[in-house]
Design a protein that fits this description.
Structural class: mainly alpha
Shape: elongated
Helix content: over 70%
Distance between the termini: 38 Å
Strand content: under 5%
Order of helices and strands: HHHHHHHHH
Largest sheet: none
Length: 276
């Protein structure tokens, strides 16, 4: 509440005409030789002006709209920077895969413009959101693939089997064998935990890859429907289905450590909207 009042005060005071009036009034007060009389009158007039501006619904609505636009532009700039960082971090193959999908959508949007005279902003925003989700998902898949690429699963399994054999062959009852058993059992637990991490990463990678493939089909279907639309309810149903799939995938992705750029952003970058 107080933050908004401060914004209104600043906007009312810093208008060009008010600053000119205030500066001219102060100068006139000293030129007249009666600043003790003119300045209090000027201050009273300034207070009345600011109070009347803040009390105006039209003025407050205009300032709210201006501030909302500034916040949207700031979020859009942040999401655009995140988009550029994530896209550049992709492998050439994944970057080409994403660019191919985006180009396909752009061509269909252009075609919709020539056939239907344009595509509605809600559909463009939905496609932008889905493309943004697709980019984040394939970047997440790449992160898991990088982890798996630096982990030798076969060596881990061989190490576990070797430790189990040594433990099975170890005699019991002596102090030396008891100490060695404790060391081997700790090593076995560690390697089993590492293998569990690998298996969990493989499972999550399979889920994300499947979601990426499904999302690609949904994005293509939504883009194609902009050229040959059916009923609005069918389009809304498709968007809801994809959004639910993205929500499930986001939950899976949040369970593993991924780059901070993959955190969800409420407003996606204008990937297609800037082309329309």
């Amino acid at each position: 509440m107080f933050g908004r009042i401060g914004s209104y005060l600043n906007a009312a005071f810093s208008t060009k005409w008010n600053l000119l009036f205030l500066g001219g009034g102060i100068a006139a007060a000293y030129i007249s030789g009666f600043p003790g009389v003119v300045l209090p009158l000027l201050a009273a007039g300034e207070i009345y002006y600011i109070a009347s501006m803040i009390g105006s619904d039209r003025f407050r609505s205009a300032i709210d709209a201006r501030d909302a636009k500034a916040r949207r532009q700031e979020r859009s700039a942040e999401s655009q920077q995140s988009f550029e960082r994530i896209r550049k971090s992709l492998s050439p193959e994944l970057r080409e895969r994403f660019d191919h999908l985006k180009t396909h959508c752009e061509r269909l949007v252009d075609l919709a413009g020539s056939v239907r005279g344009g595509i509605d902003s809600a559909s463009l925003e939905a496609l932008d959101r889905l493309l943004w989700g697709h980019l984040r998902m394939i970047r997440g898949a790449q992160s898991i693939s990088d982890f798996l690429g630096h982990t030798d699963e076969l060596s881990l399994r061989r190490r576990i089997a070797s430790l189990e054999q040594r433990l099975a062959a170890l005699p019991s009852g002596t102090a030396s064998s008891t100490d060695l058993r404790a060391v081997l059992e700790d090593d076995l637990r560690t390697n089993k935990a590492r293998l569990g991490n690998v298996e969990e990463a493989q499972r999550k990678l399979a889920v994300i890859v499947a979601e990426v493939e499904r999302l690609e089909s949904k994005i293509a279907a939504l883009a194609e429907s902009s050229v040959t639309p059916r009923d609005v309810g069918d389009l809304a149903k498709r968007v809801d289905e994809v959004a639910e799939g993205m929500r499930r995938t986001d939950e899976t992705m949040r369970q593993i450590k991924l780059p901070p750029e993959l955190d969800d952003i409420e407003d996606p970058p204008p990937l297609l909207r800037e082309q329309a």
